[in-house]
Predict the structure of Xylulose kinase.
Amino acid sequence: MSAAEGPLVVGVDTSTQSTKALVVDVATGEVVASGQAPHTVSSGAGRESDPRQWWDALREALHQCGDAAREAAAVSVAGQQHGLVTLDAQGAPVRPALLWNDVRSAPQARRLVEELGGPKAWAERTGSVPGPSITVTKWAWLAEHEPESVRATTAVRLPHDYLTELLTGQGTTDRGDASGTGWWASGTEAYDEEVLGHVGLDPTLLPRVVRPGEVVGTVRDSAGLPFAKGTLVAPGTGDNAAAALGLGLRPGTAVLSLGTSGTVYAVSTRRPADPTGTVAGFADARGDWLPLACTLNCTLAVDRVAALLGIDREAVEPGASVTLLPYLDGERTPALPHASGLLHGLRHDTTAGQLLQAAYDGAVHSLLGALDLVLDEDADRSAPLLLIGGGARGRAWQQTVRRLSGRAVQVPEAKELVALGAAAQAAGVLTGEDPAAVARRWNTARGPVLEVGERDEAALARIAGVISDAAPLLEREADQR
Ligand SMILES: Nc1ncnc2c1ncn2[C@@H]1O[C@H](COP(=O)(O)OP(=O)(O)O)[C@@H](O)[C@H]1O
Ligand SMILES: O=C(CO)[C@@H](O)[C@H](O)COP(=O)(O)O
């Protein structure tokens, strides 16, 4: 037996690059065991992963947790948002999942926006103007390009739903993750039958949307995982909504998450509806809202630039007037799905370290542009930004965010806030507590604060100028290059 004070729970984060599992003491928030196993994502035109890998990675991550996982009384799975998982009558994937950062459905997104009333109508209806990340556009792409896959599909799931169903045998999802599909109406909090009819998706193929705090089932014996009989399963949610739980986030505090995706978000009590499409009007996992902007190019893109230059990711140098837009995967914020990376202002005396700093600046610029938009008007804009995700460990990321935001930056010591949020949700179904209150009790946001500095307006203006001047290049579709 572990020396934990309270019951134990397991929180899972199945994100783009890996699945992580934490075993957490409900009384103290102490992480008593952890595990992590990688996934692979296809390269080339699309971004796909075989969902069976996520299950194998979950088993491996739990195996690494050892006996502590066997003692867990509840588990919850948080996962990368938006991925389209199509299952056949046996529950097996019909094809690999189309991930959030697959931009092939950009034409379908454009068409759907036009056909169903334009950007404002979509924002009011679903909270978001669908771009290629949003699941409904992926379903429309599949219907057009692989009608045989659509015909073979008897269930449609998101990544966290897929794993939760393998645990419980029940097809369920939650409002946080459902709000990223484009077929969930944020006004009524129900599936939008008109949108579904428009794309030919039968609503009976979708999972039941459970209430926050509902126990969705218990772990099946047949799951073959190291859980005791009767282990409760919590609803789970999308990874950003889980991190908001994991931070015990209150309205008015902004979060910047630096992982495969870059995201900026805040909790709001007001239902968002941004007709420009910059802010996605997601629901959170508790009953509030999570206005969020997301970039496709964050840590992987900057690490790629460092690798190309042959230098360490921390080997940045200041003082350049070079601009690097690191849109290696196309971009979502700004909405440039067909863009590629762009370099401007290179001189004989530009150093490799300056080029790398320019890549950090380009990545952070996109996120900061949306910062004010995700915060309510009455938010305290002098409060520190919370910096999380794998990139938050890096000094170059921390200093870039501090310099370009002109805000104080707080870096929580807790490393895995998505998995911690899932653990807080699992604790909530066990004790009846609000998961965000659990996380506050665990003091998960604790960490050093980098003091406020002067905002680098010159760099911000230079980057904005290049984006604007290069618009025709950045907007050009791949086959026009
Ligand atoms: N010390 C560090 N400094 C900078 N970046 C880091 C550091 N540690 C990890 N990373 C970056 O974090 C990323 C993984 O972050 P994570 O939030 O786990 O991603 P995801 O949840 O999207 O799978 C990797 O791409 C890696 O480049
Ligand atoms: O698409 C979004 C948010 O809308 C992404 O944030 C995904 O949820 C993937 O997250 P990570 O794997 O980068 O954590």
Observations:
- Residues 352-368 form the longest helix (17 residues).
- The mean pLDDT is 96.
